[in-house]
């Protein structure tokens, strides 16, 4: 229902084509950037592959030992399995730790459900209930401990200054120092009447408080740029006047998705001169 309402709003605002272009049309380009970029992904795979194998074994045990008329537990297993298989689509097109973990939540539930039903065949049901209750209490306690530690860390670093543009943001001291330096640098360039564009996924930290019109450059990620892909950005850059300052991430940038449009960065380096460096940005001036 909400999806239909959303589509109607897009049509009425003449934004439907733009929405489809920017959200769906070029999603396949992510395929060229499949990532197993961290040890986290490798570890996740080591967990997931045995999990799928175990669930498959459990399923065949069900089929072999349960009467031909499907039991309620088997029906539930098959329902959850169908949703779990559907959840695998989350891994496409970006294959990394986050998407992999998110897509296997239902598989984990299925694994636990399978173990529970198998144990019922081997152990007294009352014992299983006590075991499940014990495990649940342990999980709740563990979760509360982790949650408390996270909240303490968050509270220590969250910006509590209500007068600040960054109120409520999680910012370490190093982040605050970098933001102040970059803001001061950009303000000075604005006072020189410089046109500024920031090609970075953290651009909004600076474009919003300084009211810089950054348009496509706020999220310059491959797959998010519509059917024209990187040409969306390079065409926009071509239209910018000579002398425009273009900031791009350098090797000091810690907050990156690994999906930054490399061809766009290559275009900047070939059509602008590096004139400066400020924190995690290299500064180029368009010819």
What attributes does this structure have?
alpha+beta, 11 helices, 287 residues, 4 strands, four-stranded mixed beta sheet
Can you walk me through this structure?
The protein folds into 2 domains: 131 residues, no CATH class; 114 residues. 57% of the residues lie in helices and 8% in strands. It contains 11 helices and 4 strands; from the N terminus they run H-H-H-H-H-H-H-H-E-H-H-E-H-E-E. The chain has a 4-stranded mixed sheet with strand order 1-2-4-3, sandwiched between helices. The protein starts with a helix and ends with a strand. The mean pLDDT is 79.
How is this fold's topology laid out?
Layout: H1 2-12, H2 16-25, H3 39-65, H4 72-87, H5 97-103, H6 105-122, H7 125-157, H8 173-191, E1 196-199, H9 204-207, H10 231-238, E2 245-249, H11 262-271, E3 272-278, E4 281-286
Parallel strand pairs: 1-2
Antiparallel strand pairs: 2-4, 3-4
Q: Shape from CA axes?
A: elongated
Order of helices and strands: HHHHHHHHEHHEHEE
**Beta-strand fraction estimate:** 5-15%
Number of strands: 4
Count of DSSP H/I helices = 11
Strand order of the largest sheet: 1-2-4-3
- The SS-based structural class is alpha+beta
Summarize the amount of helix as a percent range: 55-70%
């Amino acid at each position: 229902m909400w999806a239909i309402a959303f589509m109607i709003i897009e049509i009425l605002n003449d934004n439907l084509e733009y929405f489809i272009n920017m959200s769906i049309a070029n999603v396949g380009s992510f395929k060229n950037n499949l990532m197993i970029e961290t040890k986290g992904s490798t570890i996740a795979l080591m967990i997931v592959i045995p999990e799928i194998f175990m669930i498959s074994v459990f399923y065949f045990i069900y089929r072999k030992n349960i009467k031909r008329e499907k039991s309620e537990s088997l029906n539930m297993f098959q329902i959850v399995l169908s949703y779990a298989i559907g959840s695998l689509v989350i891994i496409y097109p970006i294959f990394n730790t986050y998407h992999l973990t998110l897509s296997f939540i239902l598989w984990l539930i299925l694994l636990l459900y399978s173990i529970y039903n198998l144990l019922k065949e081997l152990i007294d049901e009352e014992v299983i209930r006590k075991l499940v209750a014990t495990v649940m209490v342990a999980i709740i306690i563990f979760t509360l401990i982790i949650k408390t530690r996270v909240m303490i860390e968050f509270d220590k670093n969250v910006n509590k200054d209500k007068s600040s543009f960054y109120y409520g943001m999680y910012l370490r001291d190093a982040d605050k120092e970098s933001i102040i330096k970059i803001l001061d640098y950009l303000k000075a360039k604005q006072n020189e009447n410089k046109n500024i564009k920031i090609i970075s996924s953290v651009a909004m930290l600076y474009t919003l408080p300084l009211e810089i019109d950054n348009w496509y450059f706020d999220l310059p990620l491959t797959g998010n740029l519509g059917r024209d892909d990187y040409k969306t950005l390079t065409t926009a850059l071509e239209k910018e006047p000579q002398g425009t300052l273009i900031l791009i991430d350098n090797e000091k940038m810690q907050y990156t998705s690994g999906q930054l449009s490399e061809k766009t960065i290559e275009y900047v380096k070939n059509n602008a001169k590096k004139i400066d460096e400020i924190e995690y940005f290299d500064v180029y001036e368009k010819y």
